[in-house]
């Protein structure tokens, strides 16, 4: 009787072992990651945005992909065009509202694309949220300015800038909806070389937060792969050389301006792809999916967040 019981025990244990192993191996790779906040850039939008623009996804589905891999992701909206400081206050309010609604009191990871990296930095450094942020990752963010912003300020005479800004702001209100006060001139000043020099002087890194940066650039400004950024690339290259930032750029931001904290590089792609531009790197309007492994790149960034929490 004892032998039969022992035999039954060993048979049961042997049958259970592969089931347990399978269960462990099937866990999602981003399970257990602190919630990830996606901070959009200039003229960007979030999952709670209104207006015509809300019918498409700013992040091109990468937010849903990260969720499918076990991450909790929130992509709030901010004013489409305004200063780093104003957008930072809106981002803070959105994060705290989300935390209260979900009864979450822990830390977050933040991924900011373009200007979204600047308002995230300001929020962490100056608005008291450093204790709630584990990592801050910036993506193609103009930490030292964008030559395109400087060119626009130089080319447009001072007397006409408010008129042009009002036209831009009116168009933004039509496309984006909502009641947020747009300020295109404040946004423009926030992205110039001089504006970022001043910004960096009062926005230091916080010791309890780990900073990482990723970026990309165009290798050949062909208009097939880069229909918009390919047009801007030569001007950005010329401006970058004039400002001492180098010619290599993504259409809007020099590669040298994208580096902040620990530089992690950019996405990999095949020999037929002529680089990854400013919009493709965020997969805005799914513009990057044809040219590089978007899901692999975002998994890499999210895995780095998890490893550093």
Automatic annotation (TrEMBL):
Keywords: Signal. Residues 34-168 form the AB hydrolase-1 domain. It holds the Pfam family Abhydrolase_1. SUPFAM superfamilies: alpha/beta-Hydrolases. Residues 1-21 form the signal peptide. The keyword Signal applies. It comes from the Bacteria. The keyword Signal applies. This is Lipase. It comes from Leptospira levettii. The lineage of its organism: Bacteria, Pseudomonadati, Spirochaetota, Spirochaetia, Leptospirales.
């Amino acid at each position: 009787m004892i032998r039969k019981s022992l035999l039954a025990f060993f048979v049961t244990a042997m049958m259970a072992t592969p089931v347990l192993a399978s269960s462990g191996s099937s866990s999602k790779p981003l399970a257990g990651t602190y919630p990830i906040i996606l901070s959009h850039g200039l003229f960007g939008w979030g999952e709670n945005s209104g207006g015509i623009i809300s019918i498409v996804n700013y992040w091109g589905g990468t937010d849903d992909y990260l969720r499918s891999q076990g991450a909790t992701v929130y992509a709030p909206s901010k004013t489409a065009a305004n200063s780093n400081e104003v957008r930072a206050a809106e981002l803070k309010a959105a994060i705290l509202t989300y935390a209260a609604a979900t009864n979450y009191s822990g830390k977050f990871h933040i991924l900011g694309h373009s200007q979204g990296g600047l308002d995230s930095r300001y929020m962490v450094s100056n608005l008291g949220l450093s204790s709630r942020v584990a990592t801050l990752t910036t993506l193609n963010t103009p930490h030292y300015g964008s030559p395109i912003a400087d060119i626009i300020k130089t080319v447009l005479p001072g007397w006409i800038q408010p008129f042009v800004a009002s036209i831009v702001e009116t168009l933004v209100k039509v496309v984006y909806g909502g009641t947020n006060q747009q300020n295109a001139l404040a946004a423009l000043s926030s992205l110039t070389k001089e504006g970022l020099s001043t910004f960096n002087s009062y926005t230091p890194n916080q010791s309890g937060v780990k900073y990482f940066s990723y970026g990309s650039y165009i290798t050949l400004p062909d208009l097939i792969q880069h229909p918009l950024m390919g047009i801007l690339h030569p001007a950005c290259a010329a401006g970058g050389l004039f400002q001492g930032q180098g010619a290599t750029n993504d259409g809007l931001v020099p590669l040298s301006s994208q580096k902040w904290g620990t530089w992690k590089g950019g996405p990999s792609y095949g020999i037929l792809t002529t680089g990854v531009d400013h919009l493709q790197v965020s997969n805005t309007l799914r513009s990057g999916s044809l040219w590089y492994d978007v899901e692999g790149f975002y998994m890499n960034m999210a895995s780095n967040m998890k490893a550093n929490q």
